[in-house]
Protein: Response regulator
Amino acid sequence: MSRILLAEDDNDMRRFLVKALQNAGYEVTSYDNGLSAYHRLREEPFQLLLTDIVMPEMDGIELARRASELDPDIKIMFITGFAAVALNPDSAAPKHAKVLSKPFHLRELVTEVQKMLPAA
Structure:
């Protein structure tokens, strides 16, 4: 089963995302800030980091950069209302990251995750 680490500071959004991804057959571990998510990444491997960009303690771009250093094979998807920040070539965002702009439908999220990860 593919494992996803979700970092999203909005409690309602995080709850909806976890439920949608679990219903699609993924194992999801979630955190409400980037720093806690980073500490978990250091403990065990995940196939996908799904992260908001604007979060307390550590933003999603920094989290993604550090995740890529820990595991160059980890797939990264940003979910954000600030897509221009992630797409800015001057940002430290990993170049292979996918960006899904808010608002999006949960089905769209699941479809994009399924494209990035092996079938659950």
User: Anything to note?
Assistant: The mean pLDDT is 90. The longest strand covers residues 75-80. The CA atoms of residues 34 and 58 lie 5 Å apart. Residues 3-114 form a domain with the Rossmann fold fold (CATH 3.40.50.2300).
